[in-house]
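**Tokenised fold:**
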Amino acid sequence: MLRALNTSSTGLEAQQANIDRIANDLANVNTDGYKRDTTEFHDLMYETVKEPGARQGATVVSPVGIQKGMGVKVGATHKIFDQGSTKVTNAPYDLMIEGHGFLPVKLPNTGEVVYTRAGNFKLDSQGRISLSNGALLEPQITIPPEANSVIISPDGVVKAQTNEGDSVIGNIQLVNFVNPQGLMAIGNNFYKPSIASGQPKQAVPGEAGVGTILQGALEASNVNVANSMIEMIGAQRAYEMNTRVMGVADKMLEATTNIVR
């Protein structure tokens, strides 16, 4: 009975982590560029009472054994980088990546380069392309004040249209990773590379396996509300079943205690 209590408590903890993950996904259903998470569960260690193939006599071998499981644990959580739907905004500095890759930006306080899929850029007071939190597009691109409009091509070439004609003022680069699931999410739609993700590989949009740039659009969150609700109901039922197991184990333990008395 004590084993059942301990085992079901691991189930409660695992399903609580599952609910926490689903809650975070649903909270970010309208966050541009957000990527949903997934949770992997692993079973815990086993107590082997009898090994499979153990000898039961001189010529008899047991085809199966006896093993008692000790519960479950959260083995891993990581992002699912499926493409989100397209949100057309017609804003000149909204950029969407169609395909693989990330936009590199430099944080204003630390100067550290991080990576994002959210391309809701604007111009700061100096005409630099930046995010609302002050992170600057890397490499830095400054729009001249005399520009009437800005055209960004799918391969990342930025042109400013002035009364004197068009001129190229910069090139947007994309970055990809060998293992994007190994990236560390740090909030604000930013990711940092880790040993698991590998080093960033910079490329021209449309080349070396990275996607292209779509101006005037944003990538919506890839959270599917209907699927998340189904997952939430499943996690809730699993949590309830584990609480019932704990209740049954507690009653069995109480009955055993009464017999001893």
User: Anything to note?
Assistant: DSSP finds two helices and 20 strands in the chain. The chain has a mean pLDDT of 92. Residues 2-81+223-260 form one domain. The longest helix spans residues 225-260.
